[in-house]
Fold this sequence. Notes:
This protein is α/β, with parallel strands linked by helices. It has 2 domains: 1-35, no CATH class; 37-193, D-amino Acid Aminotransferase, subunit A, domain 2 (D-amino Acid Aminotransferase, Chain A, domain 2). It contains 4 helices and 11 strands, in the order βββαββββαβαβββα. The strands form 2 sheets. Strands 3, 4, 5, 6, 7, 8, 9, 10 and 11 form a 9-stranded mixed β-sheet that branches. A two-stranded antiparallel sheet has the order 1-2.
Amino acid sequence: xxxxxxxxxxxxxxxxxxxxxxxxxxxxxxxxxxxxxxxxxxxxxxxxxxxxxxxxxxxxxxxxxxxxxxxxxxxxxxxxxxxxxxxxxxxxxxxxxxxxxxxxxxxxxxxxxxxxxxxxxxxxxxxxxxxxxxxxxxxxxxxxxxxxxxxxxxxxxxxxxxxxxxxxxxxxxxxxxxxxxxxxxxxxxxxxxxx
Length: 195
């Protein structure tokens, strides 16, 4: 809605000498930005596979941090191809996430999401979706996922704190519809967010 905003809080080590040794200080940066309008649920998102790989850094896996230049490059790839989001894989070819989202796929009624012990961001909405799925009795699997599994999925959707659940309605050249599992989970997440 008009006037809605996103508040982004960054914590840094502050200014320091050249090099990587911490300065000992902490600096807080607060940014306020207009709320972005994602595609409508029924319209969904377009998703393409990016060539730029996601970095593998197990010590940082799951954490959201500012060292994500490869995501910036991959987002540029996706935008150049007219897609709303780009799918990133690690150097071994395993699917990690979107450039700004987490990925879920549904196959045979089972909900799958990439295992993120080597790369990726755990995500608040990802955790919420996994919890809601269990509460609805939907089988959940976290695993290494290859591109062929994504291509063969019955349903695909993306999550992050701003879009919540956004169905993928075009993956590469394939058209998809928001499926029953995606719809159930989206309703459960919306219901859980209501005051």
